[in-house]
Amino acid sequence: MTDAPDAPDAAAEIDVSIPHLDDDAREAAQERQQHLTKPPGSLGRLETMAADIAAMQATPQPAVDPAVVATLAADHGVASEGVSAYPQSVTGAMVEAVDAGGAAISALAAAGDIETLVVDMGIAGDVPDGVIDAHVADGTANMADGPAMTAAQARESIRNGQRVVADHAADAGIVGLGEMGIGNTTASAAITALLTDRSVAAVTGHGTGIDEATRQRKIETIEHAIAVSEPDPDDPLDVLRCVGGFEIGGLVGVTLEAASRRVPVVVDGFIASAAALLAVEIEPRVADYLLGSHASVEPGHAAQLDALGIKPCFDYGMRLGEGTGAALAIGIYRAACTAHTEMATFEEAGIKPE
Ligand SMILES: Cc1cc2ncn([C@H]3O[C@H](COP(=O)(O)O)[C@@H](O)[C@H]3O)c2cc1C
Ligand SMILES: O=C(O)c1cccnc1
Questions:
Q1: Which residue's CA is the nearest one to ligand 1's atom 24?
Q2: 249-277 average pLDDT score
Q3: Residue 47 bears catalytic tag
């Protein structure tokens, strides 16, 4: 296959095969739940979560451990348009903080007994030794001037993300999507507008905390970028090429590879959800392996979750990223699986329910 730099041929070019959900495992899990020492259905969504994960993992005994959150980082050329409250240099600095164990995701993952992977997908600058190298380039080009990356880089970012799972999370019970990249809510809003058919204004929020005038400039920047590169909304690789980011492409790859291995994927906030939208465009069956985490403050998140067909587990007013919502949600999914597998049945407890 040739690598035509400006005409990506979408889904067919990414090598992925997603297994069907295992309906027998789901039914076995649901049957077990009828016998556990509680009124049927009384654990509410925890019961559905356990049965869903059973179908994904093809076992009536679902389990999330070892649990992993992968935080993929990259720089964005569009940061030079002043669309974030922080300078581009914060991406690399925060990666050092994650590597040193001092970031929010480090603390929440430690609290939740979750392994973290920190991945360089395209940081402009020095990267600490402990960071996994999946570097595509030193940040994307400024999407306001033309495509953010080449078609070859779009594919490379996805493949590198697939490799992160194959090489570092092959035995994971669950994977959470995390990211770091100043300017990446701009890329994500552009992707979301294109893939959910919403206006740019409707899905563009305050990101790291920009004021309303800056948000207006962010909207204009995205509209201009879309007008300049004219991404084909029906071609996810073209959308990634024109307005995406290397960590977003990497998260597409993580999602595809995890789903292909029957590993449930916990989608985090606005950026992770933009990546999930692209992954589902590439291979719709991937949607079967997605699990919700929190409801982000970003206004476009609800439209993303709607398009993905997943529900948030909680709404704590979070708007950070890094995989922080996914880390908290993994605790809930773990609890759902543990209740499912560890609770006694009425028979075992010697209780006669009738
Ligand atoms: C210190 C700091 C830590 C972060 N951790 C995640 N983000 C989040 O904010 C950025 C996206 O917002 P925007 O598009 O407005 O730049 C991403 O790095 C995202 O992961 C952070 C941002 C900052 C400043
Ligand atoms: O929803 C998110 O994940 C988010 C929102 C703002 C900034 N960074 C991430």
A1: 86
A2: 98
A3: no
CA of 185 to the centre of ligand 2 (A): 7
pTM here? Answer: 0.97
- If one counts every other C-beta atom within 10 angstroms of the C-beta of residue 331, the result is 17
Does the beta carbon of 269 lie inside 6 Å of ligand 2? yes
Distance 2 CA to ligand 1 centre (A): 36
- C-beta 271 within 6 A of ligand 2: yes
Check if 229 has its Cβ closer than 6 Å to any atom of ligand 2: no
On whether ipTM exceeds 0.90, the answer is: yes
- Show Cβ contacts of residue 66 under 8 Å, excluding neighbours closer than 6 positions: 115, 171, 172, 173
- pLDDT > 90? residue 1: no
Per-residue model confidence as pLDDT tens digits over 297-327: 999 999 999 999 999 999 999 999 999 999 9
- Mutation probe of ligand 2 site: the residue of 177, 185, 266, 305 with most atoms within 8 A of C-beta: 185
Mean pLDDT over all residues of the chain? 96
State the pLDDT confidence band at 14, using cuts at 50, 70 and 90.
confident
Strand 67-74 relative to strand 132-133: parallel, antiparallel, unpaired? Answer: unpaired
**Calpha distance 265→111 (Å, rounded):** 20
Domains contained in the chain, CATH given:
23-60+340-349 (1.10.1610.10), 62-336 (3.40.50.10210)
DSSP H or E stretch at residue 67: strand 67-74
Candidate list 322, 347, 348, 354, residue with the active-site label: 322
Place of tokens 């993905």: 308
Atom nearest to 319 CA in ligand 2: 5
Confidence band (pLDDT; 50, 70, 90) for 5?
A: very low
